[in-house]
Specification:
Helix content is 32%, strand content 22%. It is built from eight helices and twelve strands. The chain has a six-stranded mixed beta sheet with strand order 3-2-1-11-12-9. Helix 3 packs across helix 5. The model has no long low-confidence stretch (mean pLDDT 96). Bound molecules: zinc ion (ZN). Zinc ion binds next to loops.
Length: 248
């Protein structure tokens, strides 16, 4: 089975369309690691797609804020403005979809998906010590996580040594492959489709081939200016508009 793994789409339909165009014909089923909405200008279009096309999705902190499970009091000012704006835009069916999204981890075949971390859906895993704590409690050899918006992740070899996974894109290539080895544990982030924060403005995602035991990390350009124009038309905070230009 070939899985399209998406995370942190954040209501960015332009980015989602670019991802789907690049991934067309390369996957059998799609999964999402949460944060379907928040920040971006098209929550209903993105949730409409999610409802019809995702085999499974875990909830993210922005999904909880948008449907009222969380009051967004822990958010930055701009994030809270966007969350409340999103809540006002969402159709009743789309609000209900976000409300019923499960908390991770959710098990798929022999791997699992989470939003932030295995123990806490809202926890950021951004350092090697964060990752070590996660790798020690993983119930499976492969976990996909989101939330940090950084593509890559971590692996632990048979001897317990930790390595960072940083996809290297050779010139002109949109994808970078990682062969998964038996006995090693992987904690991998496909990157953010809709608001990358690793200084690369392109939409991130990955495709996992569970038979070939291979993960392909992808980066594809999308029409950033079109998303920014829509955000300005919607009156979303300028800081959220500008950060898409820098991938941060
Ligand atoms: Zn996010």
């Amino acid at each position: 089975m070939r899985w399209l793994i998406l995370g942190d789409i954040h209501s960015n339909i332009e980015a989602l369309r670019a991802v789907l165009a690049a991934a067309a014909g390369r996957y059998d089923e799609a999964l999402c690691l949460g944060d379907v909405v928040g920040y971006g200008p098209d929550p209903n279009l993105v949730v409409d797609w999610a409802r019809q096309n995702l085999r499974a999705c875990v909830r993210g902190n922005h999904d909880k804020a948008a449907c009222g499970i969380d009051d967004a009091s822990g958010f930055t000012y701009e994030s809270r403005v966007a969350a409340l704006w999103t809540r006002a835009q969402l159709s009743p069916n789309n609000l209900e979809y976000l409300e019923q999204l499960p908390q991770g981890p959710v098990y798929i075949e022999s791997f699992q998906i989470v939003h932030g971390s295995v123990r806490d859906e809202d926890r950021y895993v951004v350092t090697q010590s964060d990752a070590l704590e996660e790798l020690r409690v993983l119930g499976t050899h492969l976990t996909f996580f989101g939330h940090s918006h950084h593509q890559g992740g971590y692996m632990e070899d048979e001897k317990g040594y930790l390595q960072e996974v940083k996809p290297t894109f050779f010139r002109g290539c949109a994808s970078a492959g990682l062969e998964l080895l038996c006995g090693e544990k992987y904690f991998l982030n496909p990157g953010s489709a809709g608001q990358p924060r690793d200084r690369d403005t392109r939409a991130g995602f990955c495709i996992y081939d569970s038979v070939g035991r291979r993960v392909e990390f992808w980066r594809v350009p999308y029409d950033v200016a079109a998303t920014q124009q829509r955000m300005m038309e919607c009156g979303l905070p300028d800081a959220l508009v500008q950060r898409l230009s820098f991938g941060y």
